[in-house]
Amino acid sequence: MSLDLVKKxxxxxxxxxxxxxxxxxxxxxxxxxxxxxIATANSNTHVRALADEVExxxxxxxxxxxxxxxxxxxxxxxxxxGVVVHVFLEEARNYYNLERLWEDGAKIDVNELLK
Length: 115
Description:
By secondary structure, the chain is an alpha+beta fold. 40% of the residues lie in helices and 29% in strands.
């Protein structure tokens, strides 16, 4: 279920021109989630648009958000069953550097998910 969900999320982010979309499989490292999906936005408006598109497309598929944080900031977090989505402004993404923090996780090829 989680990988199918990740595919839907990556497609939604790609549809709205999310930048540098990364997927990290972390299920072997933590109980927090199976996957992190990370994307960069160009502006606060773009951050909201990306998060809104993910929510919209998943709601259309009958999947509800479990938790949302950061709507008024440069970092929105969307929590779904087994998947946490992080949408950042570039400065915030560079500061928190989740890819380095979770570098022991397996990187998933986003291009394969978009096929």
